[in-house]
Amino acid sequence: MSLPDLLDYSRRWPFRLILAAVGLFLYLPLLVLIVMSFNDSRQTTVWRGFTLRWYEKLTGNVELVAALGNSLAIAGLSTILGLLLGTLAALALWRFRFPGLGLISGAFTIPIVVPEIALGVAMLIFFSRILPWPQDLPWPLNLGPIVIAHVAFIFPFVAVVVRARLTSFNREAEEAARDLGAGAWRALFDVVIPHLKPSLVAGALLAFTLSLDDFVITFFTAGPDTVTFPVKVYSMVRFGITPEINAASTILLLLTVALTVLALRVQAIAGERIVPS
């Protein structure tokens, strides 16, 4: 190694060491959680051997499986509605110019910056005082308040992702389609929407992850018969940490990480495609 390379390396290694320390601080507890979910002991601090019985026990937990089904149904419905509303909002803010555009554009970011506890309390008041929701409706209609609350929370994230993608769109392509005889809707679906596909996928995955993981808003809007997976795990933690809880948390963690990595990968591919060669 030459002297300039050695000097350059000496400047960089402290930053690498700091980065490694921060990563260890953030991810070591998660790694411990995953490892202890395979512990053959009910004591989470003592390792007694490898086992899969806690995951087998989870599959037999009817309440936990039902809670997971509720979470997946809520996340799926919320993602569909949030993707639709977020895309329409992004298109409207990108295409049209009208008085108060800046104010409305800023208002879309309020659910992103407002603490979830405040949004959860607001939704609780709304559904208990302004729009009382009957709890005896059949599944999945009894999930309505949670779905509405989740859509209000996640669709601004979709709008931000889609609007960022629209900044790279060449309006001349849409104008060319209109000149060739395509109507407004035909040009939208044949020209604009294909350009937005990476952001739509990334926004949908982000929305699904946020909805699936949400606890605070769900806790305030869920009824007695609409327990979700995060709320169920929280109720189990109140009686003590067990390897079964570690296994449930690991499943939720891995599912969230997989969806997040997929969303980041889609965004990266989209970014590579818009870079001029």
Tell me what the structure shows.
With 277 residues, the protein is mainly α. The protein has one domain (53-274): MetI-like (MetI-like fold). The protein is 76% helix and 0% strand. Helix 3 runs antiparallel to helix 9 and helix 3 (62-95) packs across helix 11 (229-237).
Parts with pLDDT < 50 across at least 5 consecutive residues: none
Count of discrete alpha- or pi-helical segments spanning 4 or more residues: 12
Rounded mean pLDDT is 78
User: What would you give as the CATH superfamily?
Assistant: MetI-like
Strand content: under 5%
What's the CATH class, please?
Answer: Mainly Alpha
Q: Could you spell the SSE succession in H and E letters?
A: HHHHHHHHHHHH
Total number of β-strand segments? 0
Shape: globular
Identify the notable features of this structure and list them briefly.
MetI-like fold; mainly alpha; globular; single chain; 277 residues
Quick overview of this protein structure:
It contains twelve helices and no strands. The protein has 277 residues and is mainly α.
What is the topological layout?
Layout: H1 3-36, H2 53-59, H3 62-95, H4 101-107, H5 110-113, H6 116-130, H7 144-166, H8 171-179, H9 184-213, H10 216-221, H11 229-237, H12 243-274
Helix pairs in contact: 1-12, 2-12, 3-7, 3-9, 3-11, 7-9, 8-9, 9-12, 11-12
